[in-house]
User: Fold these one by one.
Assistant:
Number 1:
Amino acid sequence: MIEKKKRKAIYNPEAEKRWKAKMTPEQKEERNRRNKFTIAKNFIAKGLYTPEELAELKALIEAATHD
């Protein structure tokens, strides 16, 4: 079986600017939400918090789920 080589991603700043300019407000909001979620998830997964911060996060999550 012939293996296909994956093409390398090439960062194109101009294309990124055009894409961001075409985004709707809803798309921008969703992108920001996903970015913030990823940051929070990595913060927890990598253990970059103190016990006090973890308790605060748990309290915030519990308060948000009980609304």
Number 2:
Amino acid sequence: MKNQLNSEDQFLNELFQQSATTPKGSLKEEIMRSIEARPAFEYEPVISKKAWRVIYSVFLSTIGYLLFAYKGEGGKPYFDLDIPTLDFSALSEWSTKMTNAFNGFSLQLPEVSSILVASLGVILLTGVAFVVSYKNKVMHNLH
């Protein structure tokens, strides 16, 4: 029967035998002092949060590209959305006034395409999602 017992059972069996021969205090206290604490099992996900953020960013970028920049066989984007362009006419007037004020310095403002606006929007949304996620992680670690 002793061959069938594992090492912990053998250890407990020895403790019981020792306590029967030497009555030094409580058996429970003796056993509790001799038991070692085992580390708790900690769950680690297969895909980390950082990897999920990268996957999320790649997915959003791909969707943004397919919706706004990728052109099909007809040469038109699949999702033809009229994103308003930024009107810099007021800045142009201001620019000419500044140019005249500084005698020869010129300020030319480039036109912003809808693809650039859409790409910056996707990057902005990804950045906001990252900041919110990071803030939640920091706040969770404080508690």
